[in-house]
Amino acid sequence: MTATETTTSLTEFYVGVALACGSSLFIGASFVFKKKGLLNLSVRAGDGGYGYLKEPMWWAGLLLMASGEAANFTAYAFAPASLVTPLGALSVIVAALLASYFLKERLNLIGKVGCSLCVVGSTVIVIHSPEEQQVTTMAELAQKLIDPGFIVYVCLVAIVSLVMIFYYAPKMGQQNVLIYIIICSVVGSLSVMGCKAIGLAIVQTIHGQNQFVNWLTYFFIVQLTVCICIQMIYLNKALDTFNTSVVTPIYYVFFTTFVIIASAILYKEWGNMDVKDVLGNLCGFLTVVGGIFLLNAFRDMNISWRDISSATKKTTDTSEPSESHNETHQLLENDREDRLFGHSSASNSISRGSI
Questions:
Q1: What global pTM score does this model have?
Q2: pLDDT at residue 108 in the model
């Protein structure tokens, strides 16, 4: 590799990193902007209202999210996926910080630990997940789309989404954040596949092979539009019903996981995984499960570092009287032994004097 090629490669790498970081900033901020707009509604999105379409703050959040997704999509053209995808975890931190400042939402200490575990676990999953095969033409992609494994996955996504939307969401959506998040995530995994297909069509068109005469391109445009609309509806319901600091990390974890699963099935790279990658995926998954449990099980508890410090201090204070009591008891024991041995020595002296 020449010096010019090395410089170009480094430039592209840094451009990819900048785009990925900017994407996380935009997406993290979009959660807070949309939540701010939803709070101004008289009929809540969680109750089926669509008044947020008239809220400028909500539209600002939508534009931020669109910009972030566009930047994230472009970043994959410049930097490795193993770098770009984990950087998406920064959106969780951005959303949590902005929510605490602008929305006055508080996340307790256990929630922060759970959030950290979610980010770490999902990052481990991404690092150890197989890389996608390179698909350079729409014809190659069309062949992969009719693979039985991917068709089964699409059918499962459709069934799970319909059951969640029409059965579980009306009954449990207001009590369990996972209902709305699962809908967004499984549908979102297909929207990412649509984004990749449209990006491929644009690249081929730029290189002189017009793909906008290909019916498959328009199929993906319609599919992407439908998937994004479903994602936006149920993501708004989740944000309107639950704390932003809880929705953001859980959505990130589930969305990233289902995107990895969809990509792995479509591009068939799991057969080439090493044992260490399999173990890495299992460890990452278990870490994510632990983080989600902490986020949900203890989110209503008011626990902070101050509470832990106070509890530690109380433990120390209660242990001091015990230590004092032990010292007093030891002194009494020593005094009793001295008296006993003293009496015994006196008796021995008398006995010797008698003799």
A1: 0.66
A2: 80
Which of 250, 275, 1, 213 has the alpha carbon at shortest distance from 121?
250
119 vs 110: CA distance, rounded Å? 14
Distances (CA, A) of 244 to 35, 84, 137, 178, 326: 8, 23, 40, 13, 52
Nearest Cα residue to 236 out of 26, 25, 37, 24: 37
Of residues 354 and 16, which shows the higher confidence score?
Answer: 16
Q: Are 227 and 185 in contact (CB under 8 A)?
A: no
Rounded to 5°, the CA angle 80-190-116 comes to 55
pLDDT digits (tens, 9 = 90+) for 311-352: 777 666 655 555 555 555 565 566 555 555 554 444 444 334
Backbone angles phi, psi at 48, to 5 degrees: 100, 5
The two structure tokens encoding residue 139: 């014809």
Round the average pLDDT of the chain to a whole number and report it: 77
CA distance 88 to 122: 10
What span, in angstroms and rounded, lies between the C-alpha atoms of 174 and 242?
8
DSSP 134: P
- CB-based contact 38:44 (threshold 8 Å): yes
Tokens 């951005």, located at residue: 94
pLDDT digits (tens, 9 = 90+) for 144-195: 889 999 999 999 999 999 999 999 999 999 889 899 999 999 998 898 788 7
Q: Please name the residue that has the structure tokens 């479509």.
A: 266
- 135, exposed or middle or buried, with CB in 10 Å at 0-12, 13-18, 19+? middle
Q: How many residues does the chain have?
A: 355
Average pLDDT over residues 35-41: 79
Report the 10 Å Cβ neighbour count for 202.
Answer: 13
